[in-house]
Design brief:
The termini are far apart. The chain is of the alpha/beta class. The protein is about 45% helix and about 30% strand. InterPro entries: Anti-sigma_ant, STAS_dom, STAS_dom_sf. Pfam families: STAS. This is Anti-sigma factor antagonist. GO terms for molecular function: anti-sigma factor antagonist activity.
């Protein structure tokens, strides 16, 4: 699991890569929650380089979403593969997460949502 963090227009962008699965979930959760704690309150999780997500991976995304909601922040997802998009729809998480085609569009949304 690869996790990169950068800030653009006062929006935190976390780029994940590889597979978001049980073996990596604890580390990914810890790193993502650290970004939420010290971040701007606006977060894009870019999954464009993620090939597979299991239920543990979904729990990482949910934990980050809950943590940022507690700070009255916003979190959106970007760059989902068709398989990951289908998983969100199957689990009905698409009703919770806003999804954008890419990180740039997600940042534009969060900047305009102020």
């Amino acid at each position: 699991m690869l996790l990169k963090h950068r800030t653009q227009d006062n929006v935190d962008i976390v780029e994940l890569g590889g597979r978001l699965v049980m073996a990596d979930a604890a580390q990914a959760r810890s790193e993502l929650l650290a970004v939420v704690r010290r971040g701007t309150g606006r977060l894009v999780v870019d999954l464009s380089d993620v090939g597979f997500v299991d239920s543990s991976g979904l729990s990482v995304l949910i934990a980050a979403f809950k943590a940022i909601e507690e700070r009255s922040g916003k979190m959106v997802l970007a760059g989902l593969s068709p398989e990951i998009q289908a998983l969100l729809e199957l689990t009905r998480l698409n009703e919770i997460f806003l999804v954008f085609a890419d990180a740039e569009r997600a940042v534009e949304y969060l900047v305009s949502a102020e």
